[in-house]
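Observation: inputs received (chain + flavin-adenine dinucleotide).
Thought: call the complex predictor directly.
Action: predict_structure
Action Input:
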Amino acid sequence: MMAQFQTYSARLLRSVPLSEFTKHIEFEVQGVPRFGFVAGQWLSVKAMTPEGEEITRAYSIASAPSEHARFAFCLNRVQDGYMSNYLCDLGEGAEISFQGPFGDFVLRPPLRDTLMIATGTGIAPFRSMLHGLSESGHEGEGTAGRAGAPVAPLQQAQFWLLFGSRHEQDICYREEFERLAAEHSNFHFMPTLSRGGPEWQGLRGYVQEHVKEVVVDRRDMQAYICGLDKMVSANRELLKSLGWDRKSIRYEKYD
Ligand SMILES: Cc1cc2nc3c(=O)[nH]c(=O)nc-3n(C[C@H](O)[C@H](O)[C@H](O)COP(=O)(O)OP(=O)(O)OC[C@H]3O[C@@H](n4cnc5c(N)ncnc54)[C@H](O)[C@@H]3O)c2cc1C
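Observation:
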């Protein structure tokens, strides 16, 4: 028998452009005081096309779990796609319906040194995870520090975020990740551009061209990869060719 999932309604609170084709959109779930999920999970959004066809599409939650009923998406307009443009065009106060949360692309304890690899809106689950990890004592995973203060999970291992974009202006949430890196010496933000202009001082090329710089000859780390199939496959193959156990490579494909 098919499991029945609850359908929720959520109201759009804020829609902010991140780049020419990408938006950060915040919603509030209606009728509940708190909406629980684990960082890395996704929601299944339903909509009716003008032709009267009901469609559903998956979107990763881009915000950290919290004590309230809010969540955010990081959305890319897909040419000729219905749902992505419908969501990007929604105005404040508009309502959507969705089911979830779903998915097991979540951080597995105990935390190990971790390489996160994303392109485009594949950054969404990592933003959720990293904000969740950086919040002091989050989900009770923090341990007491020397002065008795809770140690945020982000301080318990090294984290690298290898984030591929085309152009400099496409690096979503750049300031947030740069701030996180400035505040946490064990978080390393590595944006790389496939079409960076001459003024770009940072990494160039595809994400998979920089994986070895992080892992060197280590096989005791954990990798999480999120984005389009081609990128995910290229990075999985690379890590496997470096002798990594497939259990140490977790991934979410968007297409
Ligand atoms: C688990 C999961 C999580 C996801 N999370 C996000 C997210 O956080 N943000 C986000 O923007 N998208 C995310 N996606 C992709 C999303 O579900 C849709 O596929 C996407 O928004 C396109 O839907 P559409 O109805 O606009 O286009 P469709 O009508 O489904 O597709 C139109 C055309 O574009 C192609 N296409 C589909 N998706 C993409 C894509 N992502 N890039 C390029 N071409 C594509 C299709 O092959 C098709 O030819 C996720 C997908 C999965 C499976």
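Thought: report the result.
Final Answer: Confidence is low (pLDDT under 50) at residues 137-146. The chain has two domains: 7-102, 114-253.
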